[in-house]
């Protein structure tokens, strides 16, 4: 017990409860946890209210048809170019079922076949020709690595929707969470929204099949309302999906199909712990009771490890060079300096080449957010072009508005960071400009995904990149020059001399190897013991003084004399002078 100054006994408390820096941090953490808990609770209450209202309705609304298939044009699509792309297939499904030659061979519902025709899919792309029949077979999981823009999204949506359309939809229960049959995880909001749009198009007229998208950065209430009305195909980013699963509004127990799209990108963005919790530590069925489809443009070691843990015996499908681009993209390079104004001049020249086709869209990629803002503003001033920017500092509503203006052609130029490098399938992108190229070999994949925004689905496209020579870790592109030259050679394109002639920086000289010049007997002899250090000789004594160690009696001095010498120090030691303002002499006596 302790007593406060004001009187009264108070219960004993710990030192942390009395205050301090640690206590303040703990109080902040508790306050944040309480805020999150209150937010999750409010979301759950709202979901159950919407769920009760949805259960009272006789049927779920279907996908609206207004504007759903706008912009679906087959102009410029060159599906015949895909016939020359090599395909590698290995694993349990190596031989059967055979590849799909035409969509007419698919045993799918009529509404799905009609949607394929509405989307102008003349013939399946290589990834679709091999992945769709294997996924419909259902005996094996799939690991698919295909070129960017080769139709991977339809490669996993077609078999999933075909199997879901054959089943009867379950009625909505007012006291049950949303339990989707297919869960599709994507790394970014833009890619998730694009997959959701593709799912809506392919599921049009499919009865009660509902596709819902949830992602962070947007208000959760509209998403909760959509989930409350039922969901068969859930497209989500890992963060928002974890939030809804933890709050109890989404259950993964009914998952029949798990799709990880752009899995390498999700791991690069740090989503691996969340993905592992969702797949391994929540109520998702084990891999033996679900079908897992993993789609990626690259195949690093981390993806292979993830496949071993998440997938049963899977079939590998590799289309073309893993991590490469289609040959329909013409790649050009311009020498540039690190000065952004010099690059802006080159950008204006590149954009001037597309004035003959003003409807064509141009996508400009930069490394930093402030550069994206600057380039968009300068384009409006220098060329009078309506340009939008999209980067991490913009809100979700601003990003969606910028993408909508870009898709419609109101803003034909979009300046973006890597946040938009994947999954943005905008028809009509004829030009991609790399304002800032990657500077390290580890980031070379981002170049592949950037230029993959043009030349989609066999269309012709052009990519112009500004190459800064040198090996500066922040600005130089010399480290990726050999990779760029190799990529140009594989796609049969002309490689500029400043790329093919770049040499790697010289390695530091290694030290010369040690050579033992002693004889064999000397090498076998035991090492010598180190000698004891020699003691220095005693210093010479001045004449007239007694030898060291002898006691010397000082001469007596009269007491109180000012000339009295201080007592002699011990032998071998020197007496330090007294430090003071007046020097080291004796302190003068005070006047009488």
UniProtKB/TrEMBL annotation:
SUPFAM superfamilies, sorted: P-loop containing nucleoside triphosphate hydrolases (SSF52540)
What name is this protein filed under?
A: RNA helicase
Q: Which organism is it from?
A: Pycnococcus provasolii
Q: Where is this motif: Q motif?
A: 101-129
Compositional bias segments (type: Pro residues): 527-545
Give the CDD domains listed for this entry.
SF2_C_DEAD
* Source lineage: Eukaryota, Viridiplantae, Chlorophyta, Pseudoscourfieldiophyceae, Pseudoscourfieldiales
Superkingdom per UniProt:
Eukaryota
InterPro entries per record:
DEAD/DEAH_box_helicase_dom, Helicase_ATP-bd, Helicase_C-like, P-loop_NTPase, RNA-helicase_DEAD-box_CS, RNA_helicase_DEAD_Q_motif
Report domain Helicase ATP-binding positions.
133-317
Member of which family?
Belongs to the DEAD box helicase family.
């Amino acid at each position: 017990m302790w007593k406060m100054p004001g009187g009264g006994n108070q219960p004993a408390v710990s030192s942390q409860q009395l205050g301090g820096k640690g206590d303040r941090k703990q109080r902040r953490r508790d306050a944040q946890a309480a805020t999150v808990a209150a937010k999750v609770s409010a979301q759950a209450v709202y979901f159950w209210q919407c769920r009760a209202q949805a259960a009272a309705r006789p049927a779920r609304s279907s996908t609206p048809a207004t504007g759903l298939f706008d912009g679906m044009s087959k102009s410029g699509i060159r599906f015949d170019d895909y016939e020359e792309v090599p395909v590698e297939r290995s694993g349990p499904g190596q031989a059967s079922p055979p590849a799909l030659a035409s969509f007419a061979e698919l045993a799918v519902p009529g509404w799905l076949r009609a949607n394929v025709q509405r989307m102008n899919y003349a013939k399946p792309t290589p990834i679709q020709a091999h992945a769709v029949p294997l996924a419909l077979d259902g005996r094996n999981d799939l690991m698919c690595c295909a070129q960017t823009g080769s139709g991977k999204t339809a490669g996993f949506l077609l078999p999933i929707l075909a199997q879901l359309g054959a089943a009867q939809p379950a009625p909505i229960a007012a006291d049950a969470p949303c339990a989707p049959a297919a869960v599709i995880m994507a790394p970014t909001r833009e890619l998730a929204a694009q997959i959701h749009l593709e799912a809506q198009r392919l599921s049009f007229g499919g009865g009660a099949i509902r596709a819902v998208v949830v992602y962070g950065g947007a208000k959760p209430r509209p998403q909760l309302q959509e989930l409350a009305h039922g969901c068969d195909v859930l497209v989500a980013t890992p963060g928002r999906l974890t939030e809804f699963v933890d709050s109890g509004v989404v259950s993964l127990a009914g998952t029949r199909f798990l799709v990880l799209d752009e899995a390498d990108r999700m791991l690069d963005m740090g989503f691996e712990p969340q993905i592992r919790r969702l797949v391994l530590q929540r109520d998702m069925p084990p891999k033996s009771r679900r079908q897992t489809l993993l789609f990626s443009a690259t195949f690093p070691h981390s993806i292979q490890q993830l496949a071993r843990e998440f997938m049963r015996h899977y079939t590998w499908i590799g289309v073309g060079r893993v991590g490469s681009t289609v040959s329909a993209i013409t790649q050009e390079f311009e020498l540039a300096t690190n000065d952004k104004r010099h690059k802006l001049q080159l950008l204006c020249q590149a954009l001037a080449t597309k004035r003959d086709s003003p409807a064509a869209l141009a996508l400009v990629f930069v490394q930093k957010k402030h550069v994206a803002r600057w380039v968009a503003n300068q384009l409006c001033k220098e060329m009078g072009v309506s340009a939008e920017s999209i980067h991490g500092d913009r809100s979700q509503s601003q990003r969606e508005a910028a993408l909508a203006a870009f898709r419609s052609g109101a803003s034909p130029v979009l300046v973006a960071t890597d946040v938009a490098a994947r999954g943005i399938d905008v028809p009509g992108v004829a030009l991609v400009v790399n304002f800032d190229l990657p500077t390290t070999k580890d980031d070379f994949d981002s170049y592949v995904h950037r230029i993959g925004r043009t030349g989609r689905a066999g269309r012709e496209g052009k990519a112009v990149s500004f190459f800064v020579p040198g090996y500066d870790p922040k600005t130089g592109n010399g480290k990726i020059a050999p990779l760029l030259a190799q990529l140009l050679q594989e796609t049969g394109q002309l490689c500029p001399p400043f790329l093919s002639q770049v040499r790697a920086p010289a390695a530091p000289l290694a030290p010369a190897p040690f050579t033992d010049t002693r004889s064999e007997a000397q090498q076998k002899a035991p090492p010598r013991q180190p000698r004891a250090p020699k003691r220095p000789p005693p210093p010479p004594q001045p004449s007239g003084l007694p030898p060291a160690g002898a006691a010397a009696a000082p001469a007596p001095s009269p007491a109180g004399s000012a000339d009295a010498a201080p007592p002699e120090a011990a032998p071998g030691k020197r007496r330090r002078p007294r430090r003071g303002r007046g020097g080291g002499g004796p302190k003068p006596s005070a006047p009488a």
